[in-house]
Amino acid sequence: MKGWVLVAALAVGVAGAHEYYGDARPDAPELAARGPLQVGVRTLTAEHKDQFDILHASADQPNPRYSRKLTLEVWYPARLAAGQKEHVVYTDVLGSGPGDPKRPNTPFQFNGRAARDAAPLAAAQAVAASAPAAATTAASVGAAAAAATPGGAPGARYPLVIVSHGYPGSRLQMSYLTENLASKGYVVVAIDHPESTRADKTGFPSTLLNRRLDDLFVLDTVTAWAKPGSGNFLAGLVDTDNTALIGYSMGGYGALNTVGAGISAAAVAYVPGGALAVNQQGNAQYEAQRDPRLKAVVAFAPWGGAHKIWDDAGLAGVRTPTLFISGDQDDVAGYQDGVLKLFQGTVHADRYLLTYVGGRHNSAPNPPSPAHWSNPDDFQSYSEPVWDSRRINNINQHFVTAFLGVQLKHEPLQAYLDLPPLQADGTIKPDPGLWKGFPKRAALGLEWRHLPAR
Questions:
Q1: How far is residue 229's CA from residue 74's CA, in Å, rounded to a whole number?
Q2: pLDDT of residue 2
Q3: Is-contact 103 75, C-beta < 8 A?
């Protein structure tokens, strides 16, 4: 048996050498298709100075300060040079964090469809580049206006998407989605949150405190980089007044906290010293930091509902349109008392909930790399026991494309979100093949809910 497993793993490794995560399966829904634009990728850093160091606070040193150095992966529409190809090799790490001998931090690599350090494609040029494809494929509906700003002319600048990983995770764990969105006319910036990646995981209070602060700092940083004359390659390229947050697990917690879900007084007490009060509902400083640039949220398996992070008043603070995505067997974030509760409680937001029936917590990441096969825990940190990860990836691409297209670009994609509702007994109508954009019989195992803002 061990020999068979080894042969199977080697076979997967050989196949994986030429695999790009996010490529559409034959049964992928319509909007999963890659967009018409070529994609570049760059790695940048941003340093958030003079931040409260919650992990080293004590009675003797109540206000320690430090700088948080954030590594950012940036995907963007690109103009490739002669001979340059959309191929990159990403390097990430396995493991549950430093110091775990059962799951040591081990580097692994996987392929991506993006050109490292390619020249950016000006938004006006993207209009011409995408027009032929837009005429022939619904996946590119609105791509001819890839950089349109609300009420503005096509060809202005690209909307911004900020991506926040789980705990622990990395900026690279959703490359199937980040590359896909960049090919459709978005600038996508994924964050490595310090003290929260697989490479540097430390105390959980840092994640509870800093996710919202990191998200807003990155938004401000990219805004500065986007200004004409900044000297950054993003100068004149990004419309940060038109931004979405995508968060997975603790990234979903942070995204909701960023757009108005202030944590409860009970949750503030989870960390001694009251440091989490800066993220608390009703705190005047917190309320003043609601950012109108944030126009949409995609929350994959957001953590916190089952742990009573929010009360009703906190959840009611969200007014940003939100797409929730979760498995109904999520044993990390919870479903009935977790994600479903958050969906129902964000009463002042127009919101959707996509549910993978039988799915657990891994509704967001890439498929497990061949390197993950060497350790069951590493494999299970990316895989789903029932669902095929590639199918999940394609379905996510489809719905996120529709949702962000409507919210950030005003594209005519609402029909992909107006799906048959649940019946009175909570089940889907008999023929889920009615779902727009899905091949016949291919929507099996999915549930869809929509609740308008109150």
A1: 19
A2: 41
A3: no
Given a contact cutoff of 8 angstroms between Cβ atoms, the answer to whether 13 and 370 are in contact is yes
Give yes or no for residue 202 having a pLDDT over 60: yes
Q: Which residues, other chains included, contact 436 with Cβ-Cβ below 8 Å and sequence gap of 6+?
A: 30, 415, 416, 418, 419
What's the pLDDT score for residue 32?
Answer: 98
| Domains of the chain from N-terminus onward | 2-260+291-451 (3.40.50.1820)
The pLDDT of residue 429? 57
Residue 168, preceding peptide bond in cis (omega within 30° of 0)? yes
Check: CB of residue 159 under 8 Å from CB of residue 242: yes
Buried-exposed string 222-241: b where 16+ CB fall within 10 A, e elsewhere: bbebbeeeeebbbebbbbbb
Chain-centre distance of CA 196, in angstroms?
Answer: 15
Scanning 51-192, the segments in alpha helix (DSSP H) are 123-136, 175-182
Q: What is the pLDDT of residues 356-395, one digit of tens each?
A: 999 999 999 999 999 999 999 999 999 999 999 999 999 9
pLDDT for 131: 59
Q: Is 448 helix (H, G, I), strand (E, B) or coil?
A: strand
Listed in order, strand segments (DSSP E) in 221-373 are 238-248, 294-300, 322-327, 351-356
Answer for the pair 13, 378: CB distance below 8 angstroms, yes or no: no
Q: Is 116 exposed, middle or buried (0-12, 13-18, 19+ CB in 10 A)?
A: middle
Of 310, 304, 312, whose CA–CA distance to 338 is shortest? 304
Contact 403, 296 (CB under 8 A): yes
Cα 51 → chain centroid: 25
> Among all chains, which residue has been given the structure tokens 């580097």?
107
Percent of the chain residues topping a pLDDT of 70: 87
pLDDT tens-place string over residues 399-413: 999 999 999 999 999
> What are the angstrom distances between the C-alpha of 5 and each of 29, 386, 390?
32, 20, 21
